[in-house]
Amino acid sequence: MFKRQESLKSKTKYRSIWADIIGVTLTVFIFILPFYFLVVNAAKGTSESFRLNMSPPKKWLLFHNIGKVVADHDWHVLRSTYNSLILTVFSVFFLVIISGMTGFVMHRKRNRASTVANWLVLTALVIPPAIVPTIWVLQRVHLYKTLAGMIAIEVAYGLAFAILIFRNFIGTIPKEIDEAAIVDGCTGWNLYFRIIFPLLKPVTITIGIIATAGIFNDFTNPLYYLPGDENATLQQTLFAYVSRYSTQYNLLFSDILYITAFPLLAFIFFNKRIVSGMTAGSIKG
Amino acid sequence: MVLFFIPTVLSLFFSLTRWTLQEWEFIGLENFKLYFSEENLRIGFRNTIIYAVVSSGLKVIIALYLANFLSSKLRTTGFIRSVLFFPTLVSTIGVGITFSMLMNPYEGVINNSIKSIAAIFGKVTDGPGWLVDPNLLPILSIAMVDVWKGVGIATLIYIAGMAAIPRDYYEASSIDGATPRQQFYKVTIPLVRPAMFSVIILSFVGGLRSFDLIWAMTGGGPGFISDVLASINYKQYTSGYYGLSTAGNVILFVLVSILVFPLSRYLNKKEVVM
Q1: What does pTM read for this prediction?
Q2: What letters, b where the CB count within 10 A reaches 16 and e where it falls short, cover A202-223?
Q3: Which value does ipTM take for this structure?
Q4: Residue among B60, B84, B97, B151 with most chain A CBs within 10 A, to mutate
C-alpha cells in the first residue's frame, strides 16, 4: 500500500514536468513569437524590415526608430500621447468613483429603484450603443469633439461592467460593518469613503486595470466622438500611420511598440494584483 | 444614463428618417428597406454571426482547458498565466496590424513557414491566403486573432471560478476512485458553470459588436468579404448616410437582443436547476 502511493506520487511529479515543458513551449511559440517579431522588425532598417522575417536585425536601431516616430509629423505622437493619457486617467478616475458608489447603493438598498437599476445595468452591458444619436446629443450640449465629452462617453460605456463587479464584490462585505459604523455616527459620504471604499481595494485595482487597458486601447469610440487631427489619441495615430508608413514597416512597428510600452509598464507593476483581484471572487456574472 | 439610454431611444426614431444631423425628414421604413436590399449586407450579417460564434466558442472551450491545466500543480503556472493575459492589455489596432503582417500571403512569416515545412515533404504550396481569400477565410482568420487576444481574460475568469470550488469535492471523488479526467468532466465543469456563463455572454456580445480588430486587419475587405454589421455602419456613417447608419445600429441592437437575452435566460435557468 505504502509503496503504491509512493509510485503514484512520483508518477504525478513526472507528468507535471512534461506538462510544464509543453505548456511553456506552446506559450512561447504562440504568444511570445509575435512580440519577438514586432521587436526585431521595429529595430531594423527600412529595407531590412520590408522582408518581414524573423531574423535579428543587422544593427539595432530600436531607439533611433522610436525617436523618429515620435518626432515625425511635428511631434504628433506626443500630442496624442497627451490626449490618450488625459482621457484614460480622468475616465478611469470618474468611472471607479461613480461605479463603486452606485454598486454600494444598489446592493444595500433593496427596493423598486434598485431593481430597475439592475435591469438597466444588464441591458447596458449587452446592447450596442446608438452612435449617431449620441453624437447628436453631444452636439446639443456642446461636448462633441472635446476631450471632456469623450471622457463622459468612456465613463458612461464603462459603467455597466464596473457596477456589476463592484456590486457582486460588495456582497461579500458583511452588512454589520456599515451598521457598526452607523452606530458610531458615521453616515453617508463618510461611511462610503472611510469604511467601504478601502475594503474595495482589490476589486478597485482590477477594475482600474481593465478600464485603463480598455480606454487606453479604445479605437472605435474616439473614431466616432473625437474626430480631428489635434484630438487624435494614440490608437488613432497608429491607425493613420498604417498608410503613412506603408513603405517603412520598421517605423510602423516602432509606433506599435511605443504604444505597447504603456500597458507593459502597468502590467509589470500590477501583474500579481490583477490575478489576485480577479480571484478574490469578484467576477461572478 | 443620459449618454446611453436617450440616444438608444432616439435611435429608434432617427432610424426612420433621412438625417443630416441638422435636419431630418421622415421616410418611414425606407432605411431598413434600403439596408436589407444591399447585397453586401447579407455577407455582413453572415460574417457577424460566424465571427461571434467562432471566436466566442473557441474562447469558451480553449480557456476552459487552459484554466484546468493552469489550476493543476505546475511550476510555471504564474509565467504562463501572465503571458496569456498580456495580449488583453495590448492595443487591438497594434495586434491587428502585426498579425496582418504575419499573415501576409507572400511575405508573411506564417506562409513562409508553411512553405518551408511543405518543402521538407517535397511539396510546393503557396499557403492559404489568410486575409485575401475570396471566401470565408478572412473572417475566420480575424476570429483566430481575436481568440489569441481574448483567451487570457476568459481563462482568468475560469480560474477565478475554479478557485471557488471547495477542495472537498475532489477529495471525495478521488476516494470513490475517480480519475482526474472524470473529475474534470463530472466535478469541475458542472461547478464552474457560473464562470462559464460569464465567459459565454461576454465573449459572444463582444464578438457581435466587434469592429476595431476587423477594421485594422482588413477594413472589411477585400471588397466586402470580411465586413460585419459594425463596419458597414461605420462606412455608412463616413459617407454621411446618418439615418442609414442609425438603422444599421438598430438592426445590430435587435440582433444582439434576440440572440443574447434568450441565451442568458436559458443559461440562468440551467443554473437554477443545478
Answers
A1: 0.83
A2: bbbbbbbbbbbbbbbbbbbbbb
A3: 0.80
A4: B97
